[in-house]
Each structure stands twice: as C-alpha cells, then as structure tokens.
Specification:
- With about 90 residues, the protein is an all-alpha fold.
- The chain has one domain.
- The chain is about 70% helix and about 0% strand.
- About 30% of the residues are buried.
Length: about 90
C-alpha cells in the first residue's frame, strides 16, 4: 500500500464519517471517521492482496476506489445499525 492510498483513505474516511454523522446522529463523529478510514484501508487491502488486482495502473484505478468506498460505507453502516439506540415507551 502506498502513501496515496492512505491519503485517499483518510480523506474519504472524513467525508464518509461526516455523512454518517448526518444520517445517524447517535453515532459519534470521531467513531464514524475512524470506522470509515479503517474500512477504506481494508478495502484497499482486499482489492490488492486478496483479489490480486494490479497495484499499478496507468490511469486512475476506479475499481479500487469503489472497493474503498464500499467497504468504508459498509463498515460504518454495520456498526451504526448495531449500536443504534431504540426509543422505548415510558
């Protein structure tokens, strides 16, 4: 994994974390950013190591970015759904 992969994961993690905070107000902002960044790094590792796709492409590797965004969104969504606070009647 190169530095540009980590930078894209950090920037994308901040954007996804902020969007997650808007969608799930009970999710802490720092948790959304952290989960999205970890998910995006995990997506890069899945794309490069598990699926064995080429790390070097002559142009922008859009499939890698789709994998990064997909895993980041999936991780934040799963944790937000699992930790959701349900209102109980009094």
């Amino acid at each position: 994994m190169k530095l540009d992969d980590l930078l894209f994961a950090l920037v994308g993690g901040v954007l996804i974390g902020c969007a997650a905070r808007a969608l799930w107000p009970t999710l802490a902002l720092w948790a959304g950013i952290l989960l999205a960044t970890v998910g995006m790094i995990g997506g890069t590792m899945i794309y490069l190591d598990v699926l064995q796709f080429a790390a070097e492409t002559p142009n922008v590797d859009w499939w890698r970015h789709f994998w990064q965004l997909g895993t980041g969104i999936a991780l934040v969504s799963a944790v937000a759904a699992l930790t959701r606070r349900l209102p109980f009647p009094r």
